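Re: your question from the hallway

Yes, I did run it. Sequences:
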Amino acid sequence: MKKVDAVIIGGGSAGLSAAVTLKKQGIEDILVIEKDGEPGGILEQCIHNGFGLQTFKEQLSGPAYAERYADMAKKLNVKILLNTMVTNLTADRIVEYVNAEEGCVQIQAGAVILAVGCYERPRGGINITGTRPTGIFTAGQAQRYLNIDGYMVGKRVFILGSGDIGLIMARRMTLEGAEVIGVAELMPYSNGLPRNMKQCLEDFNIPLMLSHTVSKVFGKERLERIEVVEVDENRNPIPGSEQYFDVDTLLLSCGLIPENHLAEHAGIVLNPATKGPVVDDRYMTSAEGIFACGNGLHVHDLVDFVSLQAERAAEGAAAYLKNGKPLGSTLQIKNGNQVSYCVPSQFYPDDPAEKLTVYFRVRTPLDAGTLVIRSGGQIIRKVKKRKLLPSVMEEAVLLGKQMNGLTDDITVEITGEE
Amino acid sequence: MYDVVIIGAGITGAMLSRKLSRYQLRIAVLEKENDTAEGATMANSAVIHTGYDPEDGTLKAELNVKGAQQYEEICRELHCLYKTVGAFIAACGPEEEAQLGVLAARADARGVPYRRLTREEAITEEPNLSDGVTAVLDFYTTAVVYPWEVANACMECACNNGVELFLNTPCQAIRREDGCFVIETPQGDIQTRYIVNAAGVHAEDIHAMVAAPSWHMTPRRGEYYVLDEDAKPVQHIIFPVPSKEKGKGVLAIPTVHGNTLIGPNSDFVDDPDDNGTSVDGLAYVCANIGKTLKNIPLNRSIRTFAGVRPTTTCPDFIIEEAADVPHFIDAVSIESPGLASAPAVADRLIEILAKSLELIPNEKAVMTRKAPVVLAECSPEERNALIRENPAYGRMICRCCQISEGEIVDCIRRTCGARSVKGIKKRVGAGFGRCQGGFCEPRVVHILARELGISPLEVEYGAKDSHILERENRV
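Structure:
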């Protein structure tokens, strides 16, 4: 069996960034495997602006952002297999892929970086009853039809879910001549970034119906009508609140889920909160030598953070290839009050990373609060925070010297005190 | 002039078409939808029941046992998936255990194999059985199939033997002229000596075109959840103890590809085409699966669907020549266990036809079909040989189910090939996975348009005129 130092599964924003970093770390023998015909992943269909403000300090379109990384990878002679699907991964890092040129190939990787991205929650994952006509799309699917294939999917559109892709498609379809009737959001707050709320809905007078959902659809061949209901604080429909809209298109923007098929088959432990793998402070999963980053690890709201996180995962993989596993055993980084998840969620107190950025999200919107990181009775950090939103990923930075020698798990929490 | 026209290309019509195609007959199948298996065959529990359940003395009891016995071989001949998973009938308490005794006695009388399990034995194989389950009968030869795959394969085999399938061809009226029937369709009149009414939930409409039926259609809708293939809460089909009032109850069914179905409920509906899901129906399924099972991860649902059973006022199958209309034969009221019984239903129909129709074997008839290429079932060496020959087998289109462009193209080009996105889903499974086509559907649309020589705008999702795309929008 052919051997490669590192295989990166996925050639999108996470995979390209990881590949560039691996090369910079001196790992030469690497292979990126990408299922599509060009690198860039989902960025290729995100033709709107707003990418790269953190990374490049300028506003780029999705394809332009991807091109920057693709160019860097090219300069570093990163080998990218295109139109190639990874069909299996084992815990001992045997990667099986298929393409038209080579057929079905198995390779032994020294390290694997999962940079597999995510998929959109389909209708079946949401409780919408009624018929099964055409005209119901996930927002990203409609985006691909429009931006890659060049087809509009409908004329009168309603959007369920205030996720960013849905908001961006509300604007995009309006600009292309469709009528966007409204956006319903199950929660009492928006799930999109504040800037998208402003630029995609408010600027186009598209109403946002908070605490509402689409409960039923009608139509035999094509969608004809939807039933929208208001929900109570337990997210149950309020009887009598039904409203009906005649639309031919319903876009679903109801959440992204890490694509963890390969990880699951390799027996990698998943985090039920993120639905991606559990990783330690080097971004290593429960399978030794298999690392994870990007939206396949947990769903990010900005691509810039995907790129940054992939760098850390690649550094972890490079260190593993050079020196093996970190020393000692791990302690947990746990969700405390108001925190829905932490990534990474493990660290090595005897051999901590030099600096660790823990990404987390809050459960509900908070005007203000204090981020408290503690281990046992000891408070490691305390930072005041304002305007915390579930839609905006937060970070907490931990230094190696703060983690070194700890004997208790770390808890990340938001307290009410100022 | 046809010898036999079969109305309906569901499992009953398709199974009959294939079995009749071994005789020298001119046969047509009229199907109002744009594909085979679009009615009850598309949306049911997909179980090949072994025949312990129907009441003694019924056609259901006789044909279920005989039909189920034929299935494995039919699936082998047609290269259809057939997976023996076994069925646990889970009893809760002494009263239901007594019912298990009744089922066991029926099974003994009918030669259906089973074994008795105590709670402790059963729980080692199915740890998610609910705390209330006290004893289990394991009908270990019970299997699952994809009903639409079997129906389509039967139709393909039949068509290769000369049966003519007319899709998008509803039967609008039937006249009797000169001792034969004239069927009016939008595509013109079709003459035939015999008619077999296998129109599923629409069978009463068809019968009423020739005479007033003595029964009435009372369609019953059943709703289901489909769980992600990685959520495997059960290994066997789990049934509650059946009751006269509630039928077979809410089941958990591992499908051929490892998803799990949870359902159905049973609601009478006025409209036989009303296969929409409902809040109450799904809530009933959620509430009642708990009788036999716990820890069912309904939060890993990837789809919900509903099917309509062709139930009538007659509690048994109706398989007979209409009393007042010679040569018009009903295959009606084929509700559960209609799928399992279908081969024997076809045999019974052929017996009825043979009373007045001469059946001369067609020596050239081939009862098998060419095996489709299924990469997921190939060894790496076999895959490589296929990809070398046709690189399209190396271009993966469906990420969740790992289905290649080559397999999709094959299923379009075959006899009775796919003509819609749903047709492809039914034949090769692209879009059956956890993303439900979110990733592969645009690629499938592109392949269909190319293969059929049409614009992507003309590609249909499922039913006729269910176009996916609205207009071109190029910059």
